[in-house]
Amino acid sequence: MFFSGFLCLTLTFHIVLCADPTVYLDQTFPYTTKVDGYPTLVVQKDKDAYLACVVDKKPKGMPVQWLVQNFNTNITIPISTDTDTKNSFKYQLDKPATNNWRLKIQNVQPSDEALYICRVQLQSRFQMDNISRMVKVIQKPQIIDIYTSSDTTRQEGDSMVFKCAANGIPKPLIKWQLAGGGLLPTGGREYVSPTLSIDHVNRHQKGHYKCVAENIAGKDVRRIALNVKFAPVLVAKEPDVYQAVGYSRELKCEVSGNPPSTVKQVVWNKDGVPLDDNNKYTFESYFGSNFVLMKLIIHDIDSNDFGKYRCYAENSEGNGENFVTLAESSYFVSDRPSTAGGSSLLTFSITTILMLAVTSLLHLC
């Protein structure tokens, strides 16, 4: 016989067995995935989540309920009965179809992580089988400015501690990298820690360091520039140069330092005496991003010009020097080095000229 709209079977002992309604959840947003083996909605913090409970063969007048079971207390609390919610600020119920009770969890927060249960209330009991989904909240990392290092300048030899902090759910993993690749002061290309320490900063550690905060929801990246100040270091491009009397010759020194030396902070002298004859000497300086190329051109060389020349530079961190020796050569030396093929061609040309000259003299004789 039929009773209260669902099928019942009357047995000899007057026990009534009734077929329960069919309840299922096949429409959720975000889509249901397995987390630790259980059907779960992984929801971005501050977003909304939807769970649609479909009930077939529901007894007339028997309400559908949504409940939430807290992870920590294990207490189950009713959310709604039919389409009436107990907290309209957090939950909304609607019926997109006659057999569909759709729950909307608004502005999901970490406190909303729980087990959400759909069930049907029968006459004297609740349906034995119910359908549930876990809700897990995630949040993309966001680096916290107040607790994260900013661009900084250190003197060579100082210590340095980079700091990086980030919010996120789950707690983000923080790692360090060098922008553009390369080895960190720790020795690898990646270092996992909220801090990165350098005991004694050197000029080669200047650059941009990346703090990367990452979890399953995404990542955030912060670039931190380290500027290292150091006194000038000078390198003679050719420590010993040669030239014959009567010709000109270039002497060059390359200066590295931070801050870079200005044109007034780079000078040449010989035997401690400034070079101030503008007819005899030409001074040129070429400024790059990290260096200065000092060039001294000595014109119409005579015997008094041979000797040791000093290139000197200074900046706010100190000074440096180096030396270039000009010695006499029995032949002309070009300031621009020739290739091997060019040398052979030059030798062949001189030899040819000499042979032609000798041949011409013999004909004259």
What oligomeric state is this? single chain
In one word, what is the shape? rod-shaped
Number of helices: 1
SS content category: mainly beta
Using only CA atoms, what is the Rg?
42 Å
> What percent of residues adopt helix (DSSP H or I)?
under 10%
Summarize the structure.
The protein has 365 residues and is mostly beta strands. The protein has one helix at 340-364, and strands at residues 2-3, 6-10, 16-18, 22-29, 33-35, 38-44, 49-56, 64-70, 76-81, 84-85, 91-97, 100-105, 114-120, 131-143, 152-155, 160-163, 166-169, 173-178, 191-192, 195-198, 207-215, 218-236, 240-243, 249-258, 266-270, 273-274, 281-287, 291-298, 307-315, 318-328.
Provide structural commentary.
The N terminus is likely disordered. The protein contains 1 helix and 30 strands. The protein is mainly beta. The strands form 6 sheets. Strands 5, 6, 8, 9, 10, 13, 14 and 17 form an 8-stranded mixed beta sheet that branches. Strands 15, 18, 19, 21, 22, 24, 27 and 28 form an 8-stranded mixed beta sheet that branches.
Topology:
Layout: E1 2-3, E2 6-10, E3 16-18, E4 22-29, E5 33-35, E6 38-44, E7 49-56, E8 64-70, E9 76-81, E10 84-85, E11 91-97, E12 100-105, E13 114-120, E14 131-143, E15 152-155, E16 160-163, E17 166-169, E18 173-178, E19 191-192, E20 195-198, E21 207-215, E22 218-236, E23 240-243, E24 249-258, E25 266-270, E26 273-274, E27 281-287, E28 291-298, E29 307-315, E30 318-328, H1 340-364
Parallel strand pairs: 6-14, 15-22, 23-30
Antiparallel strand pairs: 1-2, 2-3, 4-7, 5-6, 7-12, 8-9, 8-13, 9-10, 11-12, 13-14, 14-17, 16-20, 18-19, 18-21, 21-22, 22-24, 24-28, 25-26, 25-29, 27-28, 29-30
